[in-house]
Automatic annotation (TrEMBL):
Protein name: Acetolactate synthase large subunit
Organism this protein belongs to: Streptantibioticus ferralitis
Domain Thiamine pyrophosphate enzyme TPP-binding: 383-519
Residue span, Thiamine pyrophosphate enzyme N-terminal TPP-binding domain: 1-106
Transmembrane portions of the chain: none
Length: 526
C-alpha cells in the first residue's frame, strides 16, 4: 500500500466519505487510490472554487467534513474565496493540497509556491506531512480538527513523494473502525453557570434587550431555546445577517435576521440597552462609509457574551431557557403561503412565487443579493426548510453550496436562488450537478447588472457614475444567455419574463428529479 492509499483509507475510516476534486499531476496517486476505497465517493468539479464551495455546502448539511482535493498553490488559490465563506460559516472541512515532491521543491518548478502561507489564511488547522508513516495519523488529526467545535477548516499539504512511497500495513489504523474508533472528537466546552446566571439577570432586568444568535443556535434545540427566552423575557430575537444554516418555515421558531444595511440595523437595535450574543459576533457594518460609525451597537448599550467559539452554545441556551422561561414553549411560525402572483416578473413577484411553491424539507441556497428583499416574508409560512446564506460575503457561493448540499441530502430538494453576476463566478457547478444527477433547481435572477455595486457607489459617496463607471457595473452588452449556458452544460433550462411563466417553470422543475435552471428576467431594484 502506498501513502495515497493509506490517506484515502484513513479518511474513510474517520467517517469522511465524499471527495470533491479538481486534481493535477501531483495528485494522480490520490486519484488512483480512490478506486481502492469503495466508501469514498469522488465528485469532479471543473473549478476549484466549486470544489471548496461544494465541500462547504456538504459540511453545513451533513454536520461532518467532506475532503477537497486541490492541485498545488494555484489550485488552493482558486478555491480561496469559498474557503473564506466556509471559515465564516464554521463549516467542518478537510483540504488535501498536493505539492511538489520534497526533493523537487528546491528546483523552483513553474507551479512552486508558498502553499503553507496561503492555506494559513483560511485554516484553523494546518499540517504538512513530513513522513509517509505519519499519513494515517495526519488524516485522523485533520478530521478531528475539522470537527472541533464549532467547526474548522483543516488543511493537509501532501508532497507528491509521500503519495507514491510504500507504507506498511502495520502503520495503519484498523479498517472500518469508523469515526469514534479512529478520531478523538473534542466536545464543546461548557459555559460556566455564573455566566448563564448573569445573562439571565440581565434579561430579567426589565431594560430593553436583544438576543443575537448564530452558529448552532439558528437550528434545532438551540433555536427553540432562544425563542422561549425571547418570548418569556421580552427580548428582541435576532440572528446574524448571514447564518450558515437557518431552520425556518411553518412550525419552526421565527427569528428576524440582522439587516445588511447599517441604517436598517440602527432601526432594529434602537433603544436596546443590553445585547446578548449567543454564537454571533457583535454587529458591525460590512464596509466603512465616510463619516459613518462601523460599530453598530447603539450608544449606551451593554454587550454580554453568553457563548462563543468552542463553547457549548446549545446547552448554554437550554440552561438559560430553564432559568428564564421554564415550562414555556417556543413561538412557532404559523403555516401560510402567498397566492401565486400574475403579471410582470419582478423581484417581488419572484419571491411570492417561491413562497407559493417551495416544497417541504427544501434546502434553499440564497445568493439572491439585491433581488431578495421579499423572500423572508414570502417564505415565512412555507413548509419547514433550511436556508443557507452567503456567510463570508465572497460572491460565487450559491451554485457550489447547492451542489454540496444536494450531495449531502439526496432525499431533499435544493433550490438555489442566484444573482446573475454571482452566478458567472462558478457557473461550471451546473456541469457537476448534471454529471452527478443532483436534484437542484437553480433560479438565476437576471437583471443585467452588478446591482449591489450601483447601490454601494452612492452609499460610499463616490458621486454620480460616469460612462466608465457604468461600464464596469453593466452585464447587458452582450447579455448573458443563461438558458444556453445551462443547456450547454447538460442542465435543462428555460427563461421566464412573467410571473405566470416563472410559476409554471418552477413547478415543472420541482416536480422532475435532477438539475434544472430557470432564468428569471427581473428589473434591477437599484
Amino acid at each position: 500500500m502506498n501513502g495515497a492509499q493509506s490517506l484515502i483509507r484513513s479518511l474513510a475510516d474517520a467517517g469522511v466519505d465524499v471527495c470533491f476534486a479538481n486534481p493535477g499531476t501531483s495528485e494522480m496517486h490520490l486519484v488512483a487510490a480512490l478506486d481502492q476505497v469503495p466508501e469514498m465517493r469522488a465528485v469532479l468539479c471543473l473549478f476549484e472554487g466549486v470544489v471548496t464551495g461544494a465541500a462547504d455546502g456538504y459540511g453545513r448539511m451533513a454536520g461532518r467534513p467532506a475532503v477537497t482535493l486541490l492541485h498545488l498553490g494555484p489550485g488552493l488559490g482558486n478555491g480561496l474565496a469559498n474557503l473564506h465563506n466556509a471559515r465564516r460559516a464554521s463549516t467542518p472541512l478537510v483540504n488535501v493540497v498536493g505539492d511538489n515532491a520534497t526533493y523537487h521543491k528546491r528546483l523552483d518548478a513553474p507551479l512552486e509556491s508558498d502553499i503553507d502561507s496561503v492555506a494559513a489564511t483560511v485554516s484553523g488547522w494546518l499540517r504538512r506531512t513530513a513522513a509517509v508513516d505519519d499519513l494515517a495519523a495526519d488524516a485522523a488529526d485533520a478530521v478531528a480538527a475539522a470537527l472541533s467545535p464549532p467547526g474548522r477548516i483543516a488543511t493537509l499539504i501532501l508532497p507528491a513523494d509521500m503519495s507514491w512511497t510504500d507504507v506498511s500495513w502495520s502503520d495503519l489504523p484498523a479498517a472500518g473502525t469508523g469515526l469514534s474508533g479512529s478520531v478523538d472528537v473534542v466536545e464543546p466546552a461548557p459555559v460556566a453557570g455564573e455566566v448563564v446566571a448573569q445573562t439571565a439577570a440581565v434579561l430579567r432586568s426589565g431594560e430593553p434587550a436583544a438576543l443575537l444568535i448564530g452558529g448552532a443556535a439558528t437550528r434545532g434545540e438551540g433555536l427553540r431555546a432562544a425563542s422561549r427566552i425571547a418570548a418569556a423575557t421580552g427580548a428582541k430575537l435576532l440572528c446574524e445577517t448571514f447564518p450558515a444554516r437557518l431552520e425556518r418555515g411553518a412550525g419552526v421558531p421565527e427569528v428576524e435576521r440582522l439587516a445588511y444595511l447599517a441604517e436598517a440595523v440602527a432601526g432594529q437595535l434602537a433603544g436596546v440597552r443590553h445585547l446578548v450574543l449567543a454564537g454571533a459576533a457583535s454587529p458591525v457594518s460590512f464596509f466603512a462609509y465616510p463619516g459613518v460609525a462601523g460599530d453598530l451597537v447603539p450608544e449606551g448599550c451593554q454587550v454580554h457574551i453568553l457563548a462563543r467559539g468552542p463553547e457549548d452554545l446549545t446547552r448554554a441556551l437550554t440552561d438559560l431557557a430553564e432559568r428564564t422561561a421554564a415550562g414555556t414553549a417556543p413561538q412557532l411560525a404559523p403555516p401560510g403561503r402567498p397566492s401565486a402572483p400574475s403579471g410582470p416578473l419582478t423581484a417581488e413577484t419572484m419571491a411570492y412565487t417561491v413562497g407559493a411553491l417551495l416544497p417541504e424539507r427544501a434546502i434553499v441556497v440564497d445568493e439572491s443579493n439585491t433581488s431578495g428583499p421579499w423572500l423572508p416574508g414570502a417564505t415565512a409560512g412555507a413548509p419547514p426548510h433550511d436556508w443557507l446564506t452567503l456567510t463570508g460575503g465572497a460572491i460565487g457561493q450559491g451554485l457550489p453550496v447547492a451542489t454540496g448540499a444536494a450531495v449531502a441530502c439526496p432525499d431533499r430538494p435544493v433550490v438555489c436562488l442566484e444573482s446573475d453576476g454571482s452566478a458567472m463566478y462558478t457557473i461550471s457547478a451546473l456541469w457537476t450537478q448534471a454529471h452527478q444527477g443532483l436534484d437542484v433547481t437553480t433560479v438565476v435572477l437576471s437583471n443585467g447588472s452588478y446591482a449591489i455595486l450601483n447601490m454601494e457607489l452612492r452609499r460610499v459617496g463616490a458621486g454620480e457614475p460616469g460612462p466608465k463607471a457604468r461600464e464596469l457595473l453593466d452585464l447587458s452588452r452582450p447579455g448573458l444567455d443563461f438558458v444556453s449556458i445551462s443547456r450547454g452544460m447538460g442542465v435543462p433550462g428555460e427563461r421566464a419574463v412573467t410571473a405566470e411563466e416563472f410559476g409554471a417553470a418552477l413547478g415543472r422543475a420541482l416536480a422532475e428529479p435532477g438539475p434544472h435552471l430557470i432564468e428569471a428576467v427581473v428589473p434591477p431594484l437599484v
